[in-house]
Amino acid sequence: MSQSQPKAATVGDPEVKPLGETLSFMQLVWAVTHGLESASKRMHAELGVTGPQRLVLRIVGHHGRISAGTLADVLHIHPSSLTGMLRRLEQAELIRRENDPFDRRRTLIELTRRGIRLNEERRGTIEASIASALSKLPKDKLAGAKAVLKAIAASLGTGADSDDA
């Protein structure tokens, strides 16, 4: 091997030091993050929505009608972080926003017919990949994985402390 080209490090290589629990866990988290981002781009090309947009559609579809504030709470994000996404979903005619008739300060969100059709689609979605992976895990391992992810989310300050619906 020439001196100008460094040797590629590989797993099992005696020159590669073990990462330890925290770094090896972070390595897996980054792999998941990269996978989610790649799948989100593919989903956008195939279905017209990104992974986060799809999640919003699924949550709105699950509730039927939900306020923007409650949706932000469910997603563990600040309401202002949701504004642009809701605008894009509305422009794509996937959601409809209207003022709450009982409280004009609140905005209610529901799916349009087009949004309902996309909400029902499962093929090619991130959730289909995740559901497939989760279906292969015993319930106790899944509960343990959720506990770890909740602890990490809490430590990072996202407050992800709710259970699945």
Textual characterization of the structure:
With 165 residues, the chain is mostly helical. Among the domains are: 49-121, Arc Repressor Mutant, subunit A, CATH 1.10.10; 125-158. Helices cover 59% and strands 10% of the residues. It contains 7 helices and 3 strands. It has helices at 20-47, 51-63, 68-75, 79-91, 113-120, 126-135, 139-155; strands spanning 66-67, 95-100, 103-111. A 3-stranded antiparallel β-sheet has the order 1-3-2. Strand 2 (95-100) and strand 3 form a beta hairpin.
Q: Indicate the CATH topology of the domain at 49-121.
A: Arc Repressor Mutant, subunit A
| Helical stretch tally | 7
Give me the strand/helix succession: HHEHHEEHHH
In the predicted model, the low-confidence regions spanning at least 5 consecutive residues are none
SSE diagram, text form:
Blueprint: H1 20-47, H2 51-63, E1 66-67, H3 68-75, H4 79-91, E2 95-100, E3 103-111, H5 113-120, H6 126-135, H7 139-155
Antiparallel strand pairs: 1-3, 2-3
Helix pairs in contact: 2-5
Label this structure with key terms:
59% helix
Explain briefly what this protein structure is.
The chain has 165 residues and is mainly alpha-helical. It has helices spanning 20-47, 51-63, 68-75, 79-91, 113-120, 126-135, 139-155, and strands at 66-67, 95-100, 103-111. Among the domains are: 49-121, Arc Repressor Mutant, subunit A (Orthogonal Bundle); 125-158.
